[in-house]
Every structure is written in structure tokens, then in C-alpha cells.
């Protein structure tokens, strides 16, 4: 048995991939071909900072697999976005797009920087230079970036513009753009909407009424804040949230509208009235029905998994539960709904955006939300059926479905 505790993020994704291959009896040559990325590009990104210094950032675009369609995945700006992490996230995108059945492969980009400490001019300069450095390997039918941690619709607008300078107007080269530049209705909220749809389905199976459900959410960025909003609108009590600075707890449920206004005003959830201050660690240990880690990887691990008091852990972020953490949760009877299913709403609406760009025909919000719900519920039901039938974890079921689809697509194309 692998040493779960010492696994790097890519080893963790590979561990689940290997287990799925064993279960599906995938032949070795297919397994070896799919496991590692198709292409890894590392670039230097020189940026003239506002103080006059020239700083050189390191960026990556890692294309994992395109058996089912063009490479697809976000770009992360974070001090810890190294090769190893980006590689793991790229592989996860391959499994995510396969699980929800959208015609894309998997990729991820990352730049090692701290966007919170950079001005808008510096970020634009970084983004344009990074886009130029990878412009030969991205494209509407080749590889389509999107936002991730530390990037947003503004970043995508700059990427689209820098790409257009070399290749001409091609809005479908990135997704998650502002509406005015060909973005999709509902893309901004899509990941959080998807997380809340999955929680609704899981609650039905657990016999929990949403009106009486208690939710704790770690992370109040794009995913966490929209998840909180949709669940609260649906009648759940969001009893705890946190951001990088710390967290809040109110057993009666937080007023989300007031909280969002507070965050817009102050830039953080801290010091919100009608709630007690807690640390990020305390948030994870709160008694609740659904705990949604929606911040960074590794939040629930071998050190704290034994203290989790949620009925179910729902991975809003990518890789928030380590394999060692999940083994402990499973032993204690706490199920974990995996990232590749839970947070796939973002890339699903990215797919709708890409379709709208290609067809030059925008959809209205009802159409986007209806199609998103259909895909998310179907993915959940397929995974749930396999969990029941084979008595395996949700993650193992999700990986089995996804890996099976990618392996089959590769077989159909014929190996050399
Ligand atoms: N970064 C998001 C994810 O991890 C979205 C990717 C996309 O829309 O391509 O799923």
C-alpha cells in the first residue's frame, strides 16, 4: 500500500487513477500513456514592476490529455502554483470533463506570483506576456484556458486581447470572460451553483431536508461565496464561513446578503456582526451536515480528518482532501463527494460559453442554468448508482467512470 501521508498532489491523483485502472482492467500501455501529461511548458515572464524593478515570474501550461477533445482548464495565480501542483490539476481536469461528459480534455496553467500584492497594471503586463509565451499551444480547437484561483474575468479579457494581437479575434480561445466580450450568462456563479445542486441531490439520498440542513464553508472566494448564496436562498442555514484571514460562526445561520455587503465594504468576512470569530481550523471542526472546503488543496489531511464533525464533506475546491485524510474520513463513516464531480459546474458552463462563441449565438440565463442542472444531476446519479452497486467511495466511482471514458476514447482512435 502506498504511503498516503507523503503523497504530492500529482501522486494523489495518480493513486486514484491507478485504482480506477485496476478496477476497470485497463491495459498497461493505455494506462502509461494516459497517466502522464502530453505536454508541459515552462516559461519565464519578465514584468516591469511599478517600482521600476524587472521581476521574472515562472509560468506553466500543462496539457494532460486530449483524447476526448481540446485541452481545457484554468490558469492559477498563486505563490505555490508550482509544476507539481499544476500537473495534478491538469490531470484532474481530464477526469472532470470526462465525468460530466463534455467534449474536452484536461490542462492547467499556473504562474507563481501573489496577485494580491500586485497592481492592476502589473497583472495585465504579466497576463499579456504569459499569453504571448503560450499562444502557439493554446487555441479555440487546441487548448482553452479559464479562470482559477487568483484569476478572474478581467484576466481572461486580457488573455483574449493578447491572443487576438497575434491570431486575430477568437473569443472562444478562453472562457470565463466578461459578458461584454463574449462571456456566458451564469459563468461567474456556475461553480457555486453546481456545488449547491450536488448538495441538494446528496441531501435527498441522506434524507436531509434542505430547510433543516446546516452548512459550513471554508473559503469565501468565487466558489465559496456563490455556494453559500445558493444554499442559503434554498433554505439551508450557512452556519460558518471563512476566508484567508479567519472565520465566522453563527449557529442560527448567517445573513448572506448582509455578509456579502460586508465583504464588499471591508474586503474580508472578519468583524461581521452577529457572529462569533473562529479560526480556519475551528471552521473545519464544526458540527454540520455538509462541510464544503472551497479554498486550497490539502485542507483536510491526516492531522485533522479525525476531528471533522460533518455528515458529508463536499469538495468545492480542487484536491482539498488528501488521500490520507479521506482514508480517515472513510473509516469514521464520513463520505466525501469528490472535486471532479462537485466543482465541475464551472467547466461545464465554460463549455456552454465556448459553444456560444463558436456559434456566435448567446444563450439566456435560463437555458444555461437548465443545461447545467441536467449535466450536474446526471453526473451525480451516475456516480451514486456505481457507489451503491459496487460498494465503493464516491471518488472511486467518479474516477472509474471518467478513466473508463478516456481510455475508451483513446482505444477507439487506434494506438500507433
Ligand atoms: N478552474 C476551474 C476548474 O478547476 C474551471 C476550468 C474551466 O472552466 O476551464 O474546474
How would you describe the overall organization of this protein?
With 416 residues, the protein is α/β, with parallel strands linked by helices. Helices cover 47% and strands 18% of the residues. It has a seven-stranded mixed β-sheet. It has a five-stranded mixed β-sheet with strand order 1-2-4-3-5. Helix 1 (9-24) packs across helix 14. The chain is globular and about 55 Å long. The two termini are 33 Å apart. It binds glutamic acid. Glutamic acid (GLU) is lined by residues 72-74, 96, 146, 148, 175-176, 318, 343, 346-347, 350.
Number of helices: 14
Quote the average pLDDT. 96
Portion of residues in beta strands equals 15-25%
Strand line-up across the major sheet: 9-8-7-6-10-11-12
> Element order, helices and strands?
HHEEEHEHEHHEHEEHEHEEHEHHHH
The gross shape turns out to be globular
Query: How far apart are the first and last residues' alpha carbons, in Å?
Result: 33 Å
Low-confidence stretches: none
Topology (SSEs and partners):
Layout lengths: L8 H16 L3 H8 L3 E10 L5 E12 L5 E7 L5 H18 L5 E6 L8 H15 L8 E5 L5 H15 L19 H20 L7 E5 L3 H12 L3 E7 L2 E4 L6 H11 L9 E3 L1 H5 L3 E6 L16 E5 L8 H9 L3 E3 L1 H4 L2 H15 L5 H26 L3 H20 L3
Parallel strand pairs: 3-4, 3-5, 6-7, 6-10, 10-11, 11-12
Antiparallel strand pairs: 1-2, 2-4, 7-8, 8-9
Helix pairs in contact: 1-3, 1-14, 3-14, 4-5, 6-7, 6-12, 6-13, 12-13, 13-14
The structure holds glutamic acid.
Amino acid at each position: 500500500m502506498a504511503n498516503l501521508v507523503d503523497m504530492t498532489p500529482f501522486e494523489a491523483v495518480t493513486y486514484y487513477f491507478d485504482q480506477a485502472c485496476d478496477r476497470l482492467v485497463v491495459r498497461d500501455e493505455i494506462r502509461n500513456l494516459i497517466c502522464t501529461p502530453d505536454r508541459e511548458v515552462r516559461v519565464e515572464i519578465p514584468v516591469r514592476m511599478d517600482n521600476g524593478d524587472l521581476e521574472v515570474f515562472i509560468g506553466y501550461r500543462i496539457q494532460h490529455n486530449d483524447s476526448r477533445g481540446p485541452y481545457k482548464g484554468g490558469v492559477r495565480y498563486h505563490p505555490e502554483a508550482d509544476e507539481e501542483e499544476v500537473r495534478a490539476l491538469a490531470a484532474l481536469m481530464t477526469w472532470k470533463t470526462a465525468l460530466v461528459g463534455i467534449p474536452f480534455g484536461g490542462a492547467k496553467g499556473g504562474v507563481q506570483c501573489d496577485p494580491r500584492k500586485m497592481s492592476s497594471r502589473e497583472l495585465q503586463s504579466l497576463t499579456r506576456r504569459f499569453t504571448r509565451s503560450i499562444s502557439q499551444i493554446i487555441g479555440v480547437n487546441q487548448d482553452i484556458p479559464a479562470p482559477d484561483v487568483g484569476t478572474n474575468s478581467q484576466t481572461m479579457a486580457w488573455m483574449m486581447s493578447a491572443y487576438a494581437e497575434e491570431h486575430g479575434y477568437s473569443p472562444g480561445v478562453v472562457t470565463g470572460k466578461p459578458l461584454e466580450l463574449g462571456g456566458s450568462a451564469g459563468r461567474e456563479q456556475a461553480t457555486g451553483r453546481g456545488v449547491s445542486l450536488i448538495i441538494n441531490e446528496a441531501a435527498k439520498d441522506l434524507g436531509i431536508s434542505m430547510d433543516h440542513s446546516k452548512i459550513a464553508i471554508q473559503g469565501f472566494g468565487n466558489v465559496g461565496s456563490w455556494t453559500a448564496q445558493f444554499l442559503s436562498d434554498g433554505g439551508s442555514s450557512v452556519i460558518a464561513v471563512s476566508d484567508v484571514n479567519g472565520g465566522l460562526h453563527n449557529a442560527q445561520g448567517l445573513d448572506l446578503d448582509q455578509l456579502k455587503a460586508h465583504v464588499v465594504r471591508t474586503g474580508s468576512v472578519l468583524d461581521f456582526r452577529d457572529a462569533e470569530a473562529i479560526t480556519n481550523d475551528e471552521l473545519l471542526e464544526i458540527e454540520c451536515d455538509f462541510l464544503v472546503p472551497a479554498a486550497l488543496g490539502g485542507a483536510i489531511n491526516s492531522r485533522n480528518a479525525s476531528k471533522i464533525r460533518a455528515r458529508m464533506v463536499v469538495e468545492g475546491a480542487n484536491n482539498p482532501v488528501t488521500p490520507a485524510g479521506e482514508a480517515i474520513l472513510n473509516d469514521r463513516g464520513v463520505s466525501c463527494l469528490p472535486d471532479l464531480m462537485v466543482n465541475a459546474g464551472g467547466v461545464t458552463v465554460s463549455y456552454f460559453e465556448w459553444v456560444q462563441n463558436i456559434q456566435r449565438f448567446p444563450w439566456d440565463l435560463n437555458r444555461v442554468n437548465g443545461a447545467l442542472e441536467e449535466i450536474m444531476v446526471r453526473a451525480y446519479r451516475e456516480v451514486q448508482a456505481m457507489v451503491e452497486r459496487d460498494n465503493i467511495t464516491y471518488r472511486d466511482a467518479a474516477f472509474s467512470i471518467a478513466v473508463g471514458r478516456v481510455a475508451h476514447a483513446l482505444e477507439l482512435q487506434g494506438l500507433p
